[in-house]
Amino acid sequence: MPQQQTSSGPKRHAISVFLPCYNEEGNVRRVVGEALAFLPTVSDDFEVVVVDDGSGDATGRIADELASGDGRVRVVHHERNRGYGAALRSGFAAARKELVFFTDGDGQFDISQLAGLLPLIADHDIVAGWRRRRQDNLLRRLNGWLWGLLVRLVLGVRSRDVDGAFKLFRRRVVESMELKSTGAMISAEILARAARAGCRYAEVPVEHRPRQAGSQTGANLRVILRALGELWKLRREIAR
């Protein structure tokens, strides 16, 4: 596990952390709690934003309770489920700090590993964590490998883990991108647009945890078809 900063001196990183969530009532309280426990070790100026993507369970209510009890927490609500890409776009739009970091609200990443990304952001525009040992079933791991291969072939994106939900950005990079994906294509779009803009990119291995509660939606056929459609649209745009 990365070493956390324990110095009593000033911590220079001003950082927005946002958590896209869809039906994560069994995880959101724990994930926000982990973020609030860790972030003071690396920053004196931070916020945690929960993006509730139209959850049909108690995710939104729990997030509102957390925000009402701690001024460092804010919540963005989608009235209906709009998709993972839309949730990330809302998170980027809501972020107010110099650095912007996101990880999923499912709790499969230990946010303390962000300590291993922060030193690299001084010389890079994006620092991403890649899952060293992905804790998902065989089908999801196979789908992820095939998707990564397709993204590399179609868009030329070179990443060890295109969809790894553990990414740190300089704010100006986020603000310069006109993101269009509403579904699972969003991570590939971010990396493709960053590469075309000449952004400096680094990757760091991170550990991945089994999901403790809730269910995954990434292997849903509708999600996959939407991602494929958005992939070809982006390919045409880049070709133009």
Description:
By secondary structure, this protein is α/β, with parallel strands linked by helices. It has one domain: Spore Coat Polysaccharide Biosynthesis Protein SpsA, Chain A, CATH 3.90.550.10. It contains 7 helices and 7 strands, in the order E-H-E-H-E-H-E-E-H-E-H-H-E-H. It has helices at residues 28-38, 59-69, 84-94, 138-155, 171-176, 186-196, 221-239, and strands at residues 14-21, 45-53, 73-78, 99-103, 126-131, 166-170, 201-206. It has a 7-stranded mixed β-sheet with strand order 3-2-1-4-6-5-7, with helices on both faces. It is globular and about 50 Å long. The termini are far apart.
Highlighted features:
7 strands, alpha/beta, 36% helix, 240 residues, Spore Coat Polysaccharide Biosynthesis Protein SpsA, Chain A, 19% strand
CATH topology: Spore Coat Polysaccharide Biosynthesis Protein SpsA, Chain A
Highest CATH level, the class:
Alpha Beta
Compute the number of structural domains.
1
Instruction: Give the terminus-to-terminus CA distance.
Output: 44 Å
Q: Tell me which oligomeric state these chains represent.
A: single chain
Category from helices, strands and their pairing: alpha/beta
Largest sheet descriptor? 7 strands, mixed
Shape: globular
CATH architecture: Alpha-Beta Complex
What is the gyration radius calculated from CA atoms?
17 Å
CATH superfamily: Spore Coat Polysaccharide Biosynthesis Protein SpsA, Chain A
Q: Which range does the strand content fall in?
A: 15-25%
Strand-and-helix sequence, N→C?
EHEHEHEEHEHHEH
**What order do the strands of the largest sheet run in, or round the barrel if closed?**
3-2-1-4-6-5-7
Mean pLDDT: 88
Low-confidence parts lasting 5 or more residues at pLDDT below 50? 1-7
